[in-house]
Amino acid sequence: MQLTDGEDLRYALLHAPIGICILNADTLVAEIVNDKFLEVAGKPYGDICGQFYWDAFAEARAYYEAALAGVVRTGEAYYADEVELMLIRHGREEMIFVTFVYAPVKDKAGKVSKVAVWVLENTKQVNERQKVDTARILVQKERDRLTRFFMQAPAGICILDGPDLVFELVNPAYQELFPDRKLLGKPLLEAVPELRDQPIWAVLQNVYQTGQAFEGNELLIPLAKTDEGPLEERYFNFIYQARLDENNRPDGLLVFVIEVTDAVVLRKQDIGQRRIAEEKSAKLAAIIESSDDAIISKTLDSVITSWNDSAQRIFGYTADEIIGQTIYKLIPPDRVEEEPQILARLKTGERVDHFETKRLTKDGRLIDVSVTVSPLKDQQGHIIGLSKIARDITEQKLDETRKSDFIGMVSHELKTPLTSLTAIIQVVNSKLKTSNDQFLANAMEKAGIQVKRMSTMINGFLDVSRLESAKIHLDKQKFDMDELLREIVEETKLMVSTHEILLSSCGKLEICADRDKISSVISNLLSNAVKYSPKGKLVEVDCKIDRNQVLISIKDEGIGIRPEDLGQIFDRYYRVETKDNRHISGFGIGLYLSAEIIKRHEGRIWAESAIGEGSVFYFSLPICI
Fold this sequence. Notes:
Layout: H1 7-14, E1 19-24, E2 30-33, H2 35-41, H3 53-56, H4 58-74, E3 78-89, E4 92-106, E5 112-121, H5 123-152, E6 156-161, E7 166-170, H6 172-175, H7 188-191, H8 199-210, E8 214-223, E9 232-244, E10 250-259, H9 261-268, H10 273-289, E11 294-298, E12 304-307, H11 309-315, H12 319-322, H13 338-346, E13 352-360, E14 366-377, E15 383-392, H14 394-431, H15 438-468, E16 477-480, H16 481-495, E17 500-504, E18 510-513, H17 515-531, E19 538-546, E20 549-555, H18 563-566, H19 590-600, E21 604-609, E22 615-622
Helix pairs in contact: 9-10, 14-15, 15-19, 16-17, 17-19
């Protein structure tokens, strides 16, 4: 293409909807840089325009310098689609995805005189696509697992989809109820039209509309076994359960059904009642006994009334040993308050879903379990007992512990080479003090910053590992809190020139604590206040005495925290994700470590915030007496 110096062309380049940077082909000095390019680069205009291109993008030089040189040498464009790239944007490392082109610009003689760099950031689109792909795989696996369970179940199971209740899935046991009818893909009333004028149709509609499950025992439903057959009096035990979509609204029904016509007829005739009833009950029992989870029934007084094989496998007690005992036999002494709390919720008709706790086995072991408890109701809707499903998640918890141990081990092993690297950089920096090579001095200074960042990250992960294995040591001693606050604020001011930091002194005040660890808490909170508030804003550090406690607060004028996130910001690896802070790096361990350190000093830590109005982080510690 032929580049001219015309004002129209320059205006078009500067206002183009994608990032554009024009380089001199001989010197690789940036001559034109538009706003979109600066937005993607995350660097000031003066750091790019008029500068050697690889000075501005030193972090990407090793990967793309050869490609850019090839464009100048061969005159052929270089194209990269959605590549992952680490850039230092706004002073912080960020991993982003970009599509870019190095396009040669030739003069009239055909020589490459300029190189146009065209760039478009794809980070959001790539991340969203990856999330969708992962979710789709997980959903499909879960659907396959449930489908296998349904198809192998001894009871009739079907899934009815949408307001027309279309048969989406029918297992063999359900199809046996209508041996000569085609069900799949048909609306319920088309496949079984005789239901239209029966009360059960209204029941189905109510379950779909309200989401309230319905259980029926020995319900009479006149049905034909074939399309052309006569109606017969048939009796069924069934459960209608609403299927909920991602917005927790019903979008279909899950039906469990067993025909008990023979049993009911025989009972009415007083012939073979026990044998038929036991046969039908066995089908329901088979569902329970085939489960990998412990399924337990109990009275409202917590007395166990049923106990499946998986319950015996998980807890060690046989049915004969445990039925008639209270559920407290499985509850550790320090968790006995959980049962009355659960009962109080269930007596109101509530369910308790996926409650994680610990339970005792017969041989005295403590295991981690996830418990789901639901009320059992009679035909009149009265709660007559409780059904509990307990899943052993001990191995899952052990996996989490192993992961933490692995992080701790890797972090510890990385510290040795990192220490050596730090020493080497320090030696080189000392020798470069008399050097005239400004580029090398700047490069080594940046290397030192990166090593310091990596050391901070590794120390954070190592501290998490120590906390979770109860191996962290507190070296408590008396020190002046006011003096510590002044040191940290002064150090921060030396490194941060973008914010005004004010300290309100509380005077000489001695506390008994681990000075280094309290220092790390204050530094982390102060760093966050700067990181999450715009440049030029005020950060206030305050120290007060509240009876026998010292209260420290750090207030910023930043983006604020949503109410739903406030209760979780001190959780391990929790990151608040909003459109305003996606560019801010972090692993969600700083606040977790700070909270654990304060708790181990018998203090408190909390935050108050409102979106757009900033945040205030507080912590309190006992004063030396």
